[in-house]
User: Which sequence fits this backbone?
């Protein structure tokens, strides 16, 4: 497999019947516990006692695949969930406890065939060598559908779980102070190094390194394995990887970004950036800033998708959706607010909004279901058919790999290219 | 009435990156593709094995400053592949080696707890200690530990992980949708650990898993290793597959348990074992000879000699006599990332002994390596192999075996189809899984987080 390029990339399969029109958008769904609203777990559909079971996650990802979505992301963190931006909240009225996202993705991979699997990885406290082989392995077990969402953590409590570094205490209002800026810039620089090390490790085996040459007794051609010799400010990695180059060559790297520092990370290092515009103008400004960062990083020619995140309450009529949101807000004790715009309405209204926002130059959307048991099927069985009617979404999976679905070609190996 | 027959425990080790794995056989498949692992796991489960085992490597091996290219090279990530295998099996235990040096307790504990949840209670951890600075070059820690601190860190790592596993009792999640109470206790998962190697505190974020804690395996034959296993492991891997050595090891390790207030059935002894099957014993012996020739090519024989000699021996003829020069006793620079190197603690004595044996038997270098390094544990017809395995277990040379086939991924198929039914007929191996978790298969109690003495003091 590692030596075989994906069989059907959109660019090489111009068949009009199976390829969505040029106006097709990409859709992902962000999975997190019972849903993104803190009271989601109290809905009858929520199954809150099953959040830590394989069956629960298999059901969600299978439903997303039924809707032909490009991929799911799986949230994660190295501490208990919290309603507070930077520290634990000690609450007992919301879902607490979660499983490792990479392992959830690996568990559902053999049960699905087409959908991309993009777990969250915390760069601040984990090892690029371990994550590189874990995501490469996810790519093997899913036969080419792996990605990762890289995240940083400046939480003091999470740092204390590792005991290797400390961070100053701060609130969301302090993000623009010089001291906090210095911390976050450093964390995102480290994350960029992390992604670079991970990407080099994926390339550290050439695709045809395994030769099984019985005549000479050589299993590999060692000249096709490469030391990556990554040296950064926070870590260094020698390489090569222990795991051969994964089926996609480079699994898909993504990151959520709200402001300039993370926009730089997206521009420098990612294949997909998730952003949180609240209107068309804001979306345009964000897209411009990321494109500038991309150009500044010398990647103007690379495909870099920008997806807008929206939290969604979807029902067949707008009043029902609004009433549901009010009911959940009242259960939670306060109106829901978050980083992303909250949409409340029908799938058709959401389709209108997506097509409008897309004019800012967005490639697609990552939808955060308010209540996953309710809003995910609304996406797959309501929104998707609506977008298909408008010729704005695929009618069948047209590629076998996540890169294929996203129109990303399988990249050449940087080390192979260097030795030609 | 004689004493009841001991029940045999069987596990399967996916063939790894050493010369035991015959990649040149036309039947050898991929050792990376998931289909290989799925086939292997399904075979083991069809045969009602206790568990599947995966070893780990964190740096590609080198010899003479170059990546070693004669054996299978490369493997997938242990956690990701075991968790994916949970999707294609229902009962088989899933055991992985995870190093305690190049990981942090919080992360490893949450990975094992996640695997245990996602497999409905089938996770096991083979705790190993560091290799060296060579491996450390792939990690932030960069580090490695002096020999004396390896077990000290491993012990504290395991104790810390147990504190994290035990930080949830298992009844905290009430998820009362009407009352709006998700957690009974806001401090669920709280822990504080201040020790020599780790100073960490906070809240563990994976609630208690089906097995409470993963089953703990330990490998390692030093006195420290045996003591570490006696103190806290559920099973120990050994490499003694002959009857006498096995019995000596068994007696020694089981004898250490009482000191820790533990009984003989709380620590299983499971040697690694290879096998070659034939329709008749004679056919199996012939096949075994062929397999050994495949495992030890001339080039492989020279490389194995270099583990001991610590010199470049590429100028020697593998079909000729052993080198008459002595091993280089300086720092070992020829072979790196090799566990075998540490097995020869006195290279001069080993070299002398090998020369004498080769001269006495008229062995070439390759003959010597074949004779000393690649003996199969069980060779014979299915009836002979079943009989031998059973007799070893009944004679307390082990509690069972971890079988390592030499072919990926079909090397277990014949054993499952021919030997297992004979063991079942003898009444010494299960015909169905009696329980659902790995602890059930191994006859181990489920740990209670509240039991006195169970929690390690911080």
Assistant:
């Amino acid at each position: 497999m590692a030596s075989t390029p994906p069989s059907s990339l959109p660019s090489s399969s111009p068949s009009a019947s199976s390829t969505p029109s040029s106006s097709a958008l990409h859709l992902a769904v962000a999975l997190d516990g019972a849903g993104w609203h803190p009271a989601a777990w109290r809905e009858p559909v929520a199954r809150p006692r099953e959040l830590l079971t394989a069956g629960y996650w298999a059901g969600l990802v299978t439903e997303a695949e039924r809707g032909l979505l490009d991929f799911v992301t799986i949230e994660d963190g190295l501490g208990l969930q919290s309603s507070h931006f930077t520290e634990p909240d000690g609450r007992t009225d919301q879902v607490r406890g979660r499983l490792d996202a990479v392992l959830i993705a690996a568990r559902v991979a053999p049960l699905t065939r087409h959908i991309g699997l993009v777990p969250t990885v915390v760069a601040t406290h984990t090892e690029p060598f371990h994550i590189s082989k874990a995501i490469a392995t996810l790519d093997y077990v899913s036969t080419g559908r792996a990605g990762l969402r890289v995240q940083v953590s400046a939480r003091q409590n999470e740092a204390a779980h590792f005991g290797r570094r400390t961070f100053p205490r701060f609130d969301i209002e302090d993000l623009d102070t010089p001291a906090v800026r210095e911390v976050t810039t450093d964390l995102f620089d480290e994350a960029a190094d992390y992604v670079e090390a991970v990407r080099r490790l994926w390339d550290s085996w050439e695709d045809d390194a395994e030769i099984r040459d019985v005549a000479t007794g050589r299993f590999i051609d060692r000249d096709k394995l490469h030391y990556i010799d990554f040296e950064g400010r926070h870590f260094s990695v020698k390489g090569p990887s222990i795991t051969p180059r994964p089926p996609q060559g480079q699994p898909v790297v993504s990151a959520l970004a709200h402001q300039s520092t993370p926009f730089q990370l997206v521009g420098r290092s990612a294949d997909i950036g998730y952003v949180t515009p609240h209107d068309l103008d804001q979306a345009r400004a964000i897209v411009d800033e990321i494109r500038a960062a991309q150009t500044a990083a010398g990647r103007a020619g690379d495909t870099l998708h920008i997806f807008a995140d929206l939290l969604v309450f979807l029902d067949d009529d707008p009043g029902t959706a609004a009433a549901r949101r009010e009911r959940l807000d009242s259960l939670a004790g306060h109106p829901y607010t978050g980083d992303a715009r909250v949409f409340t309405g029908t799938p058709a209204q959401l389709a209108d909004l997506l097509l409008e926002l897309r004019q800012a130059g967005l490639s697609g959307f990552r939808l955060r279901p308010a209540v996953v048991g309710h809003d995910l099927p609304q996406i797959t069985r309501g929104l998707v058919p609506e977008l298909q009617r408008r010729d704005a979404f695929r009618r069948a999976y047209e590629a076998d790999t996540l890169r294929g679905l996203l129109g990303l070609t399988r990249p050449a190996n940087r080390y192979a290219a260097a030795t030609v | 009435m004689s004493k009841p027959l001991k029940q045999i425990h069987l596990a399967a080790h996916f063939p790894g990156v050493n010369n035991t794995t015959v990649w040149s056989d036309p039947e050898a498949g991929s050792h990376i593709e998931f289909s290989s692992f799925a086939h292997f796991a399904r075979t083991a489960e069809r045969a009602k094995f206790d568990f599947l085992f995966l070893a780990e490597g964190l740096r590609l091996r080198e010899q003479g400053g170059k990546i070693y290219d004669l054996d299978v090279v490369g493997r997938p990530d242990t956690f990701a592949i075991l968790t994916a295998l949970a999707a294609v099996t229902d009962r088989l235990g899933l055991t992985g080696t995870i190093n305690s040096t190049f990981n942090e307790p919080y992360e490893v504990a949450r990975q094992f707890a996640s695997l245990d949840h996602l497999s409905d209670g089938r996770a096991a951890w083979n705790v190993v200690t560091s290799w060296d600075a060579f491996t450390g070059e792939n990690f932030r820690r960069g580090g490695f530990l002096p020999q004396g601190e390896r077990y000290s860190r491993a012990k504290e790592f395991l104790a810390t992980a147990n504190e994290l596993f035990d930080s949830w009792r298992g009844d905290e999640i009430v998820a009362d949708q009407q009352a709006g109470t998700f957690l009974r206790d806001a401090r669920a998962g709280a822990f504080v650990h201040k020790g020599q190697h780790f100073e960490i505190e906070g809240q563990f974020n994976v609630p208690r898993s089906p097995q409470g804690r993963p089953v703990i395996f330990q490998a390692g034959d030093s006195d420290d290793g045996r003591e570490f296993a006696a103190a806290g492991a559920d099973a120990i891997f050994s490499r003694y597959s002959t009857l006498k050595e096995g019995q000596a090891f068994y007696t020694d390790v089981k004898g250490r348990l009482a000191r820790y207030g533990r009984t003989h059935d709380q620590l299983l002894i499971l040697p690694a074992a290879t096998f070659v099957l034939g329709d008749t014993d004679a056919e199996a012996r012939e096949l075994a000879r062929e397999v050994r020739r495949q495992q030890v090519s001339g080039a492989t024989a020279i490389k194995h000699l270099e583990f001991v000699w610590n010199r470049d021996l590429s100028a020697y003829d593998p079909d000729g006599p052993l080198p008459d020069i002595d091993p280089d006793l300086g720092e070992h620079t020829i072979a790196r990332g090799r566990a075998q190197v540490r097995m020869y603690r006195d290279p001069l004595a080993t070299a002398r002994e090998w020369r004498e044996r080769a001269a006495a038997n008229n062995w070439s270098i390759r003959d010597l390596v074949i004779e000393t390094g690649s003996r199969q544990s069980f060779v014979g017809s299915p009836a002979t192999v079943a009989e031998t395995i059973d007799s070893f277990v009944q004679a307390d040379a082990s509690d069972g075996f971890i079988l390592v086939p030499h072919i990926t991924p079909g090397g277990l198929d014949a054993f499952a189809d021919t030997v297992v039914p004979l063991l079942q007929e003898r009444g010494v191996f299960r015909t169905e899984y009696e329980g659902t978790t790995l602890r059930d298969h191994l006859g181990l109690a489920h740990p209670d987080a509240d039991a006195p003495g169970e929690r390690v003091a911080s």
Q: What stands out?
A: Chain B has two domains: 7-279+375-440, 296-370.
